[in-house]
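Troubleshooting log. The previous structure file for this entry was overwritten by mistake, so regenerating from the original sequence record. Sequence copied from the archived sheet and checked twice against the printout by T.R.
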Amino acid sequence: MSFVAYFDTNVFDNLIKKTGDLTEADEFAVRSWVSSGQLSIAVSPINIQETFAAFRRRPEVAITQLLLMRSLCDWDRLAKHSTSILKDDVDHFAFNGERSNTPYEDSRQAAHVRSMLQQIIDGQIRIEKLEPVIDEDRDHKSGFLVMVKEAKAAIAAQLEGLEALGDIPTFQEFFEENAGEYVRAFVETFSSGEACKQRGLDGLMKIPSVRALIGVGMSFMYRINAEKRSPKSSAERDFRASAERRKPASRRGSCWPRGFLDCPCDRGSQPPYCLPPTSSGASPQGWKSRWR
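Regenerated output below.
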């Protein structure tokens, strides 16, 4: 049985450049494990989108990275959009109280994506066609920072009061007391939300993709507010990746470049979720009981 792993995009970059303490011997070892079936490397839309972003600065590196991903990754384990994973899991939970059957794309979509990437590598698709994809990614990151700043401003006054009293909770306290509020706000963005509530939100929080998204969102907000860390635009990808990574090792925004890598078949509507409910803009009723 293969060991299934997910590589952050910078791992592929390090393998190419031999940085991050990686050597030729490490690359040879990885290739040997993959070819022998001991290792299966899942691939996600985040890997591809981050590689596309490199075309503006270092197109030769981006092409080399696509070649490496094409040769190393297990394309039977191509993750769906993080938004699709979440929607499938929430809808499936509303139906029978369980998560969906798979976070992976079907073979037709995986073959289509791989074909499109090969056309980019071969120069049949010009880099100019990637510009809208790169711009979309940049706009997502900019919008993410705006939403985070708005959420941070909404709780600043109450946070100052708690700091004066020395009553800032630990993250564990914050998570245990507020996770229910977060998952409720999240599930209300779905048409199946009411059915999920009837089945019980505690059960929904046991679904790995949902728990990952809520946990990452809450830890992020705790970090920038209680620990005074500065948010980075790249964190927006981490929210998406948290859902995509919910199985490979065992609101508004796209994760594939829509219309570019999507297989020309009926995929249905895509759900409008990407950021967790940390940025809902709701005024907090009390910092320890509601922090959004």
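The chain has two domains: 3-131, 132-279. Archived copy saved in two places this time.
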